[in-house]
Amino acid sequence: MKATLFANAISGRGEGVAIAERLAACLIESGWAVGISLEHPDSLKDEIFNDCPDAMIIVGGDGTLRTVLNRAVKTLNQLPPVLFVPLGTANLMSRHLKLRWNPQTLPEQALKLLKNRNIREIDAAICNDQLFLLMTTVGIDAEVVHQLTKTRVGPIKKSSYISPAWGALWSFRQPVMNVEVDGYRVVENQRVFTFVANVREYGMGIPIANEAISDDGLLDICIFPASNQLNLLQMSLSAVVTLPTLFPGSMYLRGRDIRIESAEPAPVQIDGDAGGFTPLKIGLLPFRVPFIVP
Question: Could you tell me which CATH number the domain at 131-285 has?
Answer without folding.
Answer: 2.60.200.40
